[in-house]
Amino acid sequence: MSDSLAGLAALRRGILEARRTGRTLVAVRAWEPPEGEALYRRWPEPSWTRLWADEARQRLDRAFESAAGGPPAGLRIVRRVVRGPAGPVLCSIASSPDDLLVIGMARPRSPAARLLHRRPVHRHIPARAKCEVLVVAGPRLLPREARMLRRGELLERRGRTARLVP
């Protein structure tokens, strides 16, 4: 689960679907070392691995806060933080035909940005999933709105950091 706008929209829809069907909501945050697995294997450092896993847990918690104001009451929720690429991780967790996999689809990026990234998760999963997949589109924003949201988040993070420092 991503904490992008598309990921938050998918989380909201997942909460609705879990309530509607009475299913357990399994929120998954897949993560990988920032420099990639190949480089990490050359110079492994367990303390960094713990740090990245903790950050992934915190991002999952923040996603619930941003999407629903916290974990929804009256809903069975299982949180999973798994190391690995998002597509294969999600397909392995939602492996039963009775499962419903809800994923977010970000709006298209610039051609240069697309060259630097792997196949998008919203294309990887439907081709390989063994269960029903619901793809939720992220909101359409004007370029100025996206910049304002990113700037607001950055200022909010700076504000939290400033309050922590005596």
UniProtKB/TrEMBL annotation:
Superkingdom, natural source: Bacteria
Membrane-spanning ranges: none
Protein's name in the database: UspA domain-containing protein
Gene3D superfamilies for the chain: HUPs
Pfam families in alphabetical order: Usp
Signal sequence segment: none
Domain UspA: from-to ranges: 4-136
Matches recorded under SUPFAM superfamilies: Adenine nucleotide alpha hydrolases-like
